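Q: Hi! First time doing this. I have a protein sequence and I read that you can turn it into a structure. Is that right? Here it is:
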Amino acid sequence: MRSIAITAALLFSCACTNLYATHLRAGEIQVKRIDCNSLTFDITLTIYVNTIGSSVTVGGDDDILFFGDGQSLLVPPTNVSQMIDSQLGIGKTIFTIQHTYSKAGSYVISYVEPNRNANVLNMQSSASTRFQIESMILVEDGKCNTYPIFLNPPIDQACQRLAFFHNPVGFDADGDSLSYELVTPKRDNTNPVTDYLNPNDRKFYDLAGIAYARGNEMESAPPVFHIDPFSGFLTWDAPGATGEYATAIKVREWKKNSSGVWYEASYVIRDMQINVNDCSNKRPVLIAADDICVIAGESVDITIRASDPDGDSIRVDFVSELFQSSTYQAVVSPTHSIASYRSSPLELRFTMPTSCATVRSAPYTLIVKVTDRKKNASPLSKYHTVRIHVIAPPPELESVVVNPVSRQVSIQWSTLSCIGLESYQIWRRTSSIEYSEPRCSKGMPAFLRYELIAVVSQAQTTFVDRNLEIGSQYCYRIIAVVSGIPGKLSLDTCLIPKPAEAPVITNVSIEDTDAVDGKILLRWTSPFDIDKTQYPPPYRYQVLRQNETLKLPFEPLGAPQSDTTFIDQSINTSKYTFRYFVQLFVPTLSNSPLDSSSQASSIVATSDSKVDQIELRWSAKTPWSNYAEKNPYHLIFRSTQKDGPFELIDSVNVLSNDFFYADRGRLRPLSRDPYFYKIKTRGTYGNPSVKDPLENFSAVIFGQLLDTIPPCAPVARIEAISCNQFSCDGRSYFTSLRWESTNEPCNEDIVGYEILVKSDTTSNYTSHGIVKETSYRHNNLSNLDYCYRIVAIDHVGNRSDSSVVACNSSCLNFKLPNVITPGNDGQNDFFTAYDEENSTVNDCARSVTRVELLVYNRWGQEIFLKQISNQETRIFWPGTTNTGIEVSAGTYFYKAKVDFQTSDPAKKTQEFKGWVHVIR
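A: Yes, that's right. Below is the predicted 3D structure, encoded as structure tokens:
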């Protein structure tokens, strides 16, 4: 085909100033899998070289291709296979080798060769800098991937002070997503080139005498150098100093796994060169559509107009995946105006037939480039991208019929002859909505609020809808799914399949929110479509209720009544959701119910606290639609008290925002105080005989801003208490602890304090509970040797840092009398420490755990030794020797080694010495 000649190589033909260097300028590595059943790949090096003044091409003794699996290859010398620009001396070499990997995995393929061409401005010593490029492939078992290719060479021309544009024109045959980013060129497999600068660095504008702050083409802002990550368009607005610049573009290929998660399947790093020239020229003009949308079966027909303001001759080049295969039958006419210079202006036409085989989710990309040719001046180019969307056609509805007996809807549509047709989607909406489908729209827009009720095979052209409510208007649309992509909407059709021959429930509105005395208002219409001759009034109605939350069975509420309003009361509306329906009785005919309404539930609302807003969500299980086109706004009410009064603060268009509202304090800033909300929904049956909007309230729900700021740490202290205040029995010690919070804002919402306690015998603090007060008395202690930390807690559970440790000290005391009178008269019979019976609280022993007592006579002879713990008797010496012989009256001496319960090592063991007089 003639269009095949429209290749990337043709994009470079220009008359430029003599800027040339010595060797490697740009390049890339591309990979192609030979067979999906093997791990063999074609690996192709495409290198752009300077051919003027140099006999070196590509390959040689130091030119290594690494396969990423530990193997490598010395690339043999390879000659230039194609001249890209003979005047500039830019040629292209191509070297292809097959390589087989031993197993699946991720492999980085790279090529390193000396050296780059000389005089590259934005790196150091380019002529002695090695050249490196690389690509990564992910080889997966059981998956065959086609890696992306690029239709535009990575070498281009730019003009000083004029905006420059370039696009690699990436193409992935599998339709995978590509992303683009700028990276630093490399000199080997691990290191970037030395002292690399971005092309828009200030240095190159100072060198050219251009004010950097006005370095763009419009002279209104600093120059930019960036790439669009989605389209791949590289923009340099605008180049400064003339010369050669290097950059690199990393193009990543993204695929979705079976769970719908994106992962990187490959990447290519294209080393690119831009030659900036001093141009005396004006950029040509290019006019074409941006987006073209066609329905499969129609033809793409695009007119492209190109001209040059200087009247110079121009050429137009087209680059697209659509020219890579004859399948697309893409044609540009007139053919003689393609890729050759012609007089300005030019008008060309791009056409392509479409079918369902060309349907895909991503648009096709057609890149058009116009280049002028001016004598004694560098050429200028203009790019334009046309995105072509091919969308599956809509099914044609043949009939929508209601069965008069079963009240079911049967839908039939014509067969869609479409390659790749997979299924049909059946969508339904309660109540009609006006909608004119845009040309580029596909699939069901969410804001229309249709419900997908079924997906049927491509061979099926009928569907029966049995799940219908009384009195509701239903609208149906069908969508064909081709190659996994939903297409255009069918025309809709609306009808009321189940007339109101039973009550039509219209209200389930929560009037009072309470755990005990909640109230729900119910309303319904009379059966206005009923045959009153066959079923003569008056009618009576029985309300039945189900606790939907607990999944309890329906139960009747009261006796049948003639009124069409009922208040269900004394129920827990703050916790449970309730569901209702109404039975119809015709007393003149029977005592049994004739029919019943559809079921409807109370509105369920929830809140979610955020730092700067309170988010509300609600849901409704009702036979009517709460997405009413005429009344799409649900109302938001708020109060600072659970019982109100409530203020209308805002409304939500549920067609576009669904059942969601974020309270950001539109009327007045939100505080940290609690708020209470209720939602009024507004719905419709789409039935002109049922008055709308149908308004119903949700329960009152609580909401509060999320507080992530913890309180400040309290300051704790132990209240000083004299040991003499405690009795001697060792069972009634206590510690009085107090703390204070600072006046900082972080302490405004404290609701409690946790007391953490640790004794000297444990290593960790344990909680002794949470109190609201700022004091705590730790009672029933056998000693006072405890340490405390206090943690403040705010209303949402944020915890402060603990206070500085506050420790108490045990009461330590040990005293012995200096007179005993053994004789079994019960008075001072034994030498013992003071206790509550024989002393005041000033002298009694405290916190004693062990005593070792030694008694000796005036000559220093030991007469008695005893070790005693505080769990044993407190009688230390009965006035006898160790053998039980009574000692005579006189003076004796003692030494007592006493262990105390204390965390102070210096006080844990103490020695007491003294004398005692024995009187008989």
